[in-house]
């Protein structure tokens, strides 16, 4: 029979009620008596029956601790601290996990309310009203949230966010993304409020992305949004998201902190272990746990109180933050230092090497200012188009995943005509035949309005999974994050090892693979073989100089008695200008996205053709203008107004169809090293697609599969895969075979691939046409046209 | 009263004047009309002529009429796309156009009644706003509207093209009907009112019967303009079988060679036919519609 | 609106002999019902305004103060777009000049063509409906893609116009491809599609009581005099209506320039009209913020112009009492 309270009372010579009080209300018992009773009880092996005691006293000496996610490293220190602190006070702590679910949270509180004396509700996701109501049933202390009428313990994350933003401003960052946490989180709201206000006062632009679940997964998934936003720094709701984000960013080929600085919140142990070690706002979680237990025990009886304990936070600077990349303005170098000076007073701990998070932060005066209208608008702005542009959910980042096996429907979008539609349909059907779970929704239309439609769909978040794109849009769509970065897939899902070297990297824009070359193409000068032969003149050859071409053109005009102009004037053709510049060791664009030539060069180019016009080697301006449209039907060799046209090598068969004269093709004049193998167009995936790996696989199929190659022929240009091209060549039409021969013959002579054009390239192209035509129409001198072109074009690529 | 309002009594003196016209004047007039008609229609006849030329002849013969007539372009254009014929585009265009016609008639009518006949607070303000919506260049509104309709899941359906018209977003027609209604004498309202009609009763029994010509005008202009509208139909319709005539016509333009120009002309000509007959059949009503629409003030 | 409210007469003015008491009582309740009914009838339009029109319009106003590239979050830049437009964008001013030039020439030409043909076709006779329809035909073509090629065939170097000129010994140039004349061909294109104002003129002409002309003829006035003294004044409200709408139309002109110049505004920017420039900025150069600013400047200027037209209209538009 177990020892009873009466046995203990008898043995220690006191009344049973004293023994009871010794255990239930030790303070009401004389210390000497208390220690005697306890010693006796110990010796006799007496333990108060808590359940029975609860029946009498109404108290269980149990506490509940409800946390949102026990797997979140933020919580264990808090749990441990509260647990040991409760035990010191003779209370037992039961921990329950709600899995971030407000419904589970409510159920749990109700379920354990009868079995505990009070509940510590940590980072609740319920609404305040519900918490308040539950607080009427059981004593509650809320951690990480302020609920009127209930005691609470909060960590001053607002101050932490302020310090973090100031820190980023000090490093010269101007565009910051706040990765917002879960909806309903008080902490999240505090962080956002403080970060927005601070961003405003520091003069930097802050955009909010979220709400997100507070997981590393969500962090990784946000990487593409961050990349697209062009921001150089991110403040994440917690360390987990920050760590996930770093991982996601690295997969996208961005480096932390070189390209993007990342700050977390919480200072979980993991944040010291990841590389780069995470700069974070340390929150005193253990202290919070202890304070909460204290409050619960203090206020247990007195339920309606708004007592609040606020604990200070500290910024711990480690390796994940660094100076902003490439300061835009000259003055920004000085600015960070000036701002950094302010930091010392704001509770920042700079940790150059081995970390040991400091806990005693100097307190910072709270400055509160509400969000201004501008910030509100900025936040609203995120709400509409950017959010819709939609990062992928699900597989987070762009990690190559195993091939999907469930049914997948991909939308594919391209411009073209019926012939292209036929073969594309056929080739996609072939894919479905090989992968029956993948079907396609095809959308195609003429060139007219293609980019309007694509832009609208992308802005509306409904871009097709796979789409065709060319140099007019590649840079824009890649830097804005519409194109899926295919980098993680290149080499495994998408093979490019059989591509010519210059095609392998042709779709790379600033470290991202925005597209995979769908076909190869080279600018070519076509000439009217029949007419030239009739005139008894030699055919143009590869490597003839520009001057020779012009002289030859003048001969054609004279020999034909003025009926046939010798050569098209390609001065408005960016391809021609680029080749011409490269032959002189210059470039159209430099790798850092500016012009690789000066006004003098361009003046020389325009003058070359102005002279050609006076020699009658080139036709009058209106004929050039008509041909500048690029329409095949309007080319001089089609209308038989001129002996040459400057186009793309793969257009031979289309051109040949429109004329009864025999056509020939050579490179653009000058040393062929000025030319290189280019992508006529690319296949791109949409960054918001749900089927990234399948998209990659389909693209791989389109460019590498021999059967696909046979179907596609040379319609978009020559197959990018050299093996496929060799296999396909014999099956092509004679004119297409000529293109292949031409291209193959040139391969050895090609020069290096120039950098991908900067954004604004398509505007530059039209500006060049306008400038060239203004010379041709004699509206401007070559030098005036060149300088006015550069003025506008520089603005276009800088914007 | 309604009869007087129509053209009835005025048509009689008009005819009398005609009879009195001098023969010389009539001949001169007829010749002038004929010459003008030739000038105005020349480009169209040229287009029809080209639609009957073979691809090679289009390139070589820039004249008005073909040397060798061929209907091949019509066949090639109509059956140019393997999965759908041009007829499908016609059906789609008809659905959209008729939907817009009905929507515009209903919504612009009630809106115009409010503006023209009822006095309520902020009337002038709203009217100015309505006129203001006529002036906004459309291109900057496309993206926000697209996002809106995407949220409603209406992309790739005719709904974004028709439903907004149900909400009287075509200010031009509201304005037109307002002008018309202001030409209807107020005494009619007054009389109906004294007979105990509510504003709804006046609308139902007085305005509705008299406003029919303006509605016809609205219908015809709605039909023609929707039939020709390219941009919004391009944006909102995705699948080939859902596309409309203007979008379908643009599909010929990418075939970067001569051979697609013939079918394109052929289909352009064919696409004119429904609107032409629609107009020819209703032009009498159209003229009468505007005739009585009180533009004179 | 001023077209018809110039002689506002309340019904009461006209019926002074009605019983005042009964009328007042009727009016009181009518007034309240009118107010609610006004908003009932206005509901669809208000819904459309709020749901479809206002939000995008106001959003574009917001965008006009931002850098917005269509895909990423708009960045607030304050008045920068407007500042750039007026101080640092020669193409903007060029587009303004082209558009004003177009409007100044195209509006009178189109109205003259429409009025002229309407005068010729005003009289009712057998088959006149078909003739009217034929004149309307070019307008039915709208912005069809075929137009680009047709216009090239008419006004190109070897086009029909030069053939005709060649007959009288003039060697014409490639009108549509010449920066000096390309805009002119667009003006002709606009004037060629004169169907809508023609129909409205026809309606106006039919509305002029013929006894006025008869009276003039009796007084010995010739056709010319009769036109200036009777037809034109009587037609002035319709003329005014067409003027207002065609001015708005001309400033908004987009499709002809877009179609004929392949969407580029060439040659040498000679057909770069305002809305085409706006479109290219927003959709080709991904500067939707700047395009929105362009749109709002456009709205302000054309709105002002319309208001001025309404004001000056009062000076020359002859309103007759139509409620007879």
Distance between the termini of chain B: 18 Å
How much of the residues of chain B is beta strand, in percent?
Answer: under 5%
Number of alpha- plus pi-helical segments of chain B = 16
Largest interface: B-C, 109 and 113 residues
Number of continuous helical runs of chain A? 33
Q: Classify the oligomer.
A: heterotrimer
**SSE class of chain B:** mainly alpha
- Characterize the main sheet of chain A: 7 strands, mixed
Strand content of chain A: 5-15%
Rg over alpha carbons of chain A: 36 Å
Number of strands of chain B: 0
Arithmetic mean of pLDDT of chain A = 81
What overall form of chain A do the CA principal axes indicate?
Answer: elongated
Order of neighbouring strands in the sheet with most strands of chain A: 7-6-8-9-10-12-13
What features would you describe in this structure?
The complex is a heterotrimer of chains A (799), B (297) and C (324). With 799 residues, chain A is an alpha/beta fold. Chain A has a 7-stranded mixed beta sheet, with helices on both faces. Chain A has a 6-stranded parallel beta sheet with strand order 2-1-3-4-5-11, sandwiched between helices. Chain B is an all-alpha fold and 297 residues long. Chain B has helices spanning 2-5, 8-20, 23-51, 55-60, 72-78, 86-117, 123-135, 142-151, 159-166, 171-181, 186-194, 199-210, 212-228, 231-236, 245-250, 261-291. In chain B, helix 6 (86-117) crosses helix 10. The longest helix of chain B is centred in the middle third of the chain and has 32 residues, at 86-117. Chain B starts with a helix and ends in a 6-residue tail after the last helix. Residues 1-20 and 293-297 of chain B have low confidence and may be disordered. With 324 residues, chain C is mainly alpha-helical. Chain C has 15 helices and 2 strands. Chain C has helices at 2-5, 11-14, 20-63, 80-87, 90-120, 128-140, 146-155, 160-167, 182-192, 195-207, 210-218, 223-251, 255-260, 274-284, 288-316, and strands at residues 66-67, 75-76. In chain C, strands 1-2 form a two-stranded antiparallel ribbon. Classes of the chains: A alpha/beta (799), B mainly alpha (297), C mainly alpha (324). Chains B and C meet through helix 2, helix 3, helix 6, helix 7 and helix 8 of B and helix 1, helix 3, helix 6, helix 7 and helix 10 of C.
